[in-house]
Specification:
6-stranded antiparallel β-sheet, 11% strand, 66% helix
């Protein structure tokens, strides 16, 4: 406890005198205990003081004793070196100034608590038992006026001065409440347990951190262990081993961080292996399809060889190639006919027709013999020319049997024949004239 003075009054009980002396509580930690009277002695003295006060009251007032609140117990903070004489001096002060009769004093240096380090922490205090009846009149002295805050603050000042201790901070400022020794011991015990629990938790955390913390040496050993496991598994590439070695350059602080990194690398490699497997399966499927198709082609070629002998097939192919060449030649002739011969024929036919019409007109209207004979001769000449053209045109007949010249050929042939008939008729008429 701090060396700050304090005195606190509370109603006393008969058991208090035994607690002060011979009967110790379970929170006592074993140390100095001193008292002026034992519990039984103090109880007898108290009863004697009360009996004397009652007689004095009746003798002084002539009335029956009526007071009820006059047994008070005070707890006083003391210094580690405070003595019984210091407390007796305090008891005399309360006797002289306030009329309080002290019948037992006890110094307790055996109460307190054991701190987290196992050391005793003593709660230095004393107990003073009072009967607050006037020795001469028997009247109650610890009345309401002395229990008011102002009077109690004055008592605190006096205690600090007598025991030569520091005056405690005014309750109006500190807002602190007094804690009884029993409650104080329990509070400290709970506090100690809480501190112990916190220390245990802290130690557990430190142990956990120490166990999980990984040094550079441990990091290398862990990675080397993983590398050997990979060698046993087989199938890993140089690039994968390089990624594993690269983990040595990372600043992992715990084993868990390293294990997470290794697991992440394994997952990455597993995913890559899965992709390679799928690609390999797809390639094998394509190879299988290609093999099947090749087999089908070979089977087909074999069947074709069985149906058509090779020599006959080669002859057919040669004929086919010759027909292609002939078709190309025919196309060239058709182009010649369409672009050269046909325009010439059409032009000659048109000129012949115009000459025939002109000669026919001249023959019909010429009354002179010589002119008529010339006309007839011209008609004959044109007729011969037309026949010659007809023969030349017939040379193209084989080509007009192909589409799209067939229809043109038929119409042209019909038109030429009609013109020839007309020329013959004109010639005959001219000659008859």
């Amino acid at each position: 406890m701090s060396q700050i003075s304090s005195i606190n009054f509370k109603k006393s009980k008969d058991f208090q005198v035994f607690h002060n002396s011979t009967i110790r509580p379970n929170y006592a930690i074993g140390n100095e205990l001193s008292y002026t009277l034992t519990g039984k002695q103090a109880l007898n003295l108290k009863n004697q003081i009360i009996e004397n006060a009652k007689e004095a009251y009746t003798k002084h007032t002539g009335q029956r004793f009526k007071a009820t609140s006059y047994e008070w117990s005070a707890v006083v903070n003391i210094k580690p070196d405070s003595t019984m004489q210091d407390l007796e001096k305090l008891a005399n002060h309360f006797q002289n100034k306030y009329g309080f009769q002290c019948y037992q004093i006890a110094i307790h240096r055996d109460e307190g608590h054991i701190d987290e380090n196992g050391n005793k922490v003593i709660n230095h205090h004393a107990h003073m038992e009072f009967v607050t009846l006037d020795k001469n009149t028997g009247k109650s002295l610890f009345r309401a006026d002395l229990q008011r805050p102002k009077a109690l603050r004055q008592m605190q000042n006096e205690v600090a001065e007598i025991l030569q201790m520091q005056r405690g901070i005014d309750k109006r400022i500190s807002k602190r409440e007094r804690i009884e020794p029993r409650k104080y011991a329990q509070m400290k015990e709970n506090e100690k347990e809480n501190i112990k629990a916190l220390k245990d938790e802290l130690a557990e955390k430190e142990s956990e951190i120490k166990e999980n913390y990984i040094s550079k040496k441990d990091l290398k050993q862990k990675i080397e262990q993983e590398r050997k496991a990979w060698i046993a598994e087989q199938g890993h590439t140089k690039e994968e081993y390089a990624e594993l070695r690269a983990l040595n350059d990372k600043n992992y602080k715990t084993i868990q961080e390293l294990e997470n990194a290794i697991q992440e690398l394994k997952s990455k490699l597993a995913e890559k292996e899965k992709e390679n497997k799928e690609q390999k399966e797809a390639l094998n499927n394509e190879k299988s399809k290609t093999s099947t198709l090749t087999s089908q082609i070979n089977d087909f070629n074999q069947k074709q060889g069985d149906i058509i002998p090779k020599k006959e097939f080669d002859d057919l192919k040669a004929n086919y190639d010759a027909n292609l060449i002939e078709n190309e030649n025919l196309k060239a002739k058709v182009d010649l006919l369409e672009n050269f011969i046909t325009p010439i024929v059409a032009s000659n036919l048109e000129n012949c027709q115009n000459n025939i019409e002109n000669n026919k007109f001249n023959a019909e209207n010429n009354t002179k013999g010589q002119a008529r004979c010339d006309c007839v001769n011209e008609v004959i000449k044109n007729n011969e020319t037309m026949k010659e053209l007809m023969e030349k045109f017939s040379f193209c007949e084989r080509y007009f049997s192909f589409e799209p010249f067939k229809e043109l050929y038929e119409k042209t042939k019909e038109w030429i024949a009609e013109k020839c008939r007309k020329w013959d008729l004109t010639r005959d008429r001219g000659m008859s004239r």
